[in-house]
Write a structure and sequence with these properties.
By secondary structure, the protein is α/β, with parallel strands linked by helices. 33% of the residues lie in helices and 27% in strands. It contains ten helices and 14 strands. The chain has helices at 8-19, 44-60, 107-110, 130-140, 175-178, 193-205, 216-222, 244-254, 269-278, 289-300, and strands at residues 4-7, 27-33, 39-42, 66-77, 81-82, 87-88, 91-100, 144-150, 154-162, 185-189, 209-213, 232-236, 259-264, 282-284. The strands form four sheets. Strands 2-4-7-9-8 form a five-stranded mixed β-sheet. Helix 6 (193-205) links the parallel strand 10 and strand 11 (209-213). Helix 1 packs across helix 2 and helix 2 (44-60) runs antiparallel to helix 4 (130-140). The two termini are 28 Å apart.
């Protein structure tokens, strides 16, 4: 992570265009930013991660659809402010809020949501690491996060980040994202449904053709029906049945020109070192949309 001074309103607007691709057709994403400068000191990739995790959380809270509003504004608190679950000291802040129209939470659930591994979802839908990741990033940036929710009416996460003075506006545009677009065919093997769906939407939104599979066994069973050429195998390393490495060996034997990109959320430094040393084809979870697309282009460009 490389923190720098960024205009949060601009960063959120750019990310919003990318993240809009992740939401289902039944969820409307509304991004609003004020005219004032919203400069903060943080890593822009971390900003993407915050938004992605909060939007995943919101989408799970709206199984029948709904809307999510992302707002950015600058505020000056003349005195300490007591939120729903935390106190924010007086000072100048950039405030980012993410509000959904979902099922909401009761007081008991709200008291635990930032704890690692706490989740209201089944194991098929994730480990519950998303909100604790958000909490950690916000805390690292010397910020505060508050949450307000009513059962049946929705949830609003409000993040307060210290505002910094900065005379120059950080430049940026859609050209960065545009440069990451592609047209190649990708085999996506991921046993966690939520991650598989998000990854597929990011890649398809960037122009790739994606063939998703829940396991290596499922891919092997359907191999003969797959239209070649396939350009990239994107696979989790640790999965039930055949693991990612064994799957890659089998696939590259059958289709020697295919590139391989491994992803893993396991905290195993030696594993990461081995994969990173052998090729650039390794990406750690959780990843942002931009880091995924960057890594895909990097691996596809290998000679």
């Amino acid at each position: 992570a490389t923190p720098s001074v960024i205009d949060l309103a601009q960063a959120v607007e750019r990310s919003g265009k990318m993240l809009n691709r992740l939401m289902g057709d039944n969820i409307q994403l509304i991004v609003r930013g004020g005219d004032e400068k919203c400069f903060v000191y943080m890593d822009e990739g971390h900003m993407d991660q915050i938004l992605m995790n909060l939007l995943v959380n919101a989408s799970h809270a709206m199984p029948e659809g709904g809307s999510v509003s992302i707002n950015t504004t600058a505020v000056a608190l003349a005195e300490d402010f007591m939120g729903t679950r935390c106190s924010i000291p007086a000072g100048e802040y950039v405030v980012l809020s993410v509000a959904d129209t979902g099922v909401g939470m009761d007081v008991n659930v709200m008291g635990h949501i930032f704890e690692p591994f706490f989740t209201t979802r089944s194991s098929k839908k994730g480990t519950g690491l998303g909100l604790s990741t958000v909490y950690g990033i916000v805390t690292q940036a010397k910020g505060f996060i508050d949450v307000a929710s009513t059962v049946g009416e929705g949830t609003t996460f409000t993040i307060y980040l210290p505002q910094v003075n900065f005379s120059e506006q950080r430049t940026g545009s859609d050209s960065t994202i545009k440069a990451l677009d592609g047209h190649e065919t990708i085999l996506l093997v991921e046993d966690e449904e939520m991650v598989r769906g998000l990854t597929q939407r990011i890649l398809e939104g960037a122009g790739y053709r994606v063939l998703p599979f829940e396991s290596g066994n499922e891919l092997m069973a359907q191999w003969d029906s797959i239209e070649l050429p396939v350009h990239l195998l994107l696979t989790d390393i640790r999965m039930p049945g055949i693991d990612g490495e064994a799957l890659a060996n089998e696939i590259t034997t059958r289709s020697p020109g295919i590139r391989v990109l491994y992803v893993s959320g396991y905290s195993m430094p030696h594993l990461m070192e081995d994969f990173a040393k052998d090729s650039p084809g390794f990406l750690a979870k959780p990843f942002t949309a931009v880091s995924l697309l960057q890594k895909v282009r990097e691996v596809l460009a290998q000679v």
